[in-house]
Amino acid sequence: MSSKIEQLIDEIEEFIEGCKFKALSNTQIIVDKEQIEELIRELRMKTPEEIKRYQKIISNKEAILNDAREKAATLINEATVHTNELINEHEIMQQAYAQANEVVTMATNQAQEILDNATIEANTMREAAVQYTDDMLANVENIIASAMEGTTFRYQELMNGLNGFYETVKSNRAQLYPVAEMEALEREGNGQSVALDLI
Asked: Domains of the chain: which residue ranges?
């Protein structure tokens, strides 16, 4: 859509094209002075109005551009803030991972240290228990050996005493009976004698 000024200029050009050339000239024309002055006057009147309209359009364009610049700046600021937040979050995550790895490493080391100490303590307790058990068994062994030795000695004394009693009883019986009867009694008593010898 052309402006009013452009329309007036077109009318002036059409007017000039419609004018007749001056005699014997291809460049000079005969112009109706009143008509051309009217067109120029109208052009002058319309020019300020048209300039104002253009200024308004230009102002609107500037407002639109300023608004666009503000929106662009806002978007850039928001993007920058979001980017910084992401960077901070990334750094925080890296720090969190580093701290988590450090905690895991410390926990692993502590667990290994506890396990090592427990193993050492268990081995020490086992050695102490083995030593204590060996000491107890050695003591029991000594007691049994002493008991066996004492029992053997007392058994020998008992056997000696019984043999002494046996000989005394045998001698007393021999004095009670004649020789023939004693031999018969001895034959009958051989089983008892053998039994006493086996004890």
From this structure: 4-93, 156-198
